[in-house]
Amino acid sequence: MKRLAWWTLAAVLAAGLLFHGAILSSLGNYLVHDEPPQHADVIFVLAGDATGRRVLKGAELVREGYAPAAMVSGPPYYLVHECDLAIALAEQAGYPASYFIPFPHDAHSTTEEARDVAPKFRQMGVHHVLLVTSNFHTRRAAKAFRASAPDISFDVVGAEDAYFNPQSWWRNREGQKTFFIEWAKTIATWFGI
């Protein structure tokens, strides 16, 4: 019996070594639930992106005619709301201020952000929202927003992340950190934490 346990362990380790790339890619791909953009009443750019890729993706989608404007989410950082910083960055990149609606708030999580903005969507008469967030955040964001506002239709579009590529995230330190943090948050969400 001991011998069988050792052989089983050796086989599992060998399979892990042989197929580690495929296994790690699958785990990275699970986080990404990117959908093709659809025409919507508004684009909602989620907070939490220090690089500006989310707001630039939202602006690009407005330019392409997917919605008349992008509502940009933002909690405060050093007495300035992230949405104000993100919109300023997009304007510096050549997008007009008329593309954006700032949505300052005090939420500390994606779930809180979804709960905070749902009444605003209803007040605006919004029925269909195009969510824009980082690629690794798409699955969890879609779940949070659909749960917070089941009467509103959400499609989620991922902005490419500078470090997280689902097929190779383990090859750079920032990709590894992004993977582990997002998986921790995903598992916490499964348990309602």
Helix count, DSSP H or I runs of 4 or more residues: 7
What is the element string, with H for helices and E for strands?
Answer: HHEHEEEHEHEHEH
Oligomer: single chain
* CATH fold-level topology of one domain: Rossmann fold
Sheet having the most strands: 5 strands, parallel
User: Which CATH-level-2 architecture of one domain?
Assistant: 3-Layer(aba) Sandwich
Instruction: Give the number of DSSP strands.
Output: 7
* Largest sheet: spatial strand order: 5-2-1-6-7
Question: Uncertain runs with pLDDT below 50, 5 residues or more?
Answer: none
Radius of gyration: 19 Å
How much of the sequence lies in strands comes to: 15-25%
Q: Please state the overall shape, judged from the principal axes of the Cα atoms.
A: elongated
Average pLDDT figure: 91
| Structural category | alpha/beta
CATH class of one domain: Alpha Beta
Instruction: Give the CATH superfamily of one domain.
Output: HUPs
State the helical fraction: 40-55%
Distance between the termini: 41 Å
Molecular structure report:
With 193 residues, this protein is of the alpha/beta class. It has a domain of 130 residues: Rossmann fold, CATH 3.40.50. The protein contains seven helices and seven strands. A five-stranded parallel β-sheet has the order 5-2-1-6-7, with helices on both faces. A two-stranded antiparallel sheet has the order 3-4. β6, α6 and β7 form a beta-alpha-beta unit. α5 packs across α6. The longest helix is centred in the C-terminal third of the chain and has 18 residues. It is elongated and about 70 Å long. The chain starts with a helix and ends with a helix. The model has no long low-confidence stretch (mean pLDDT 91).
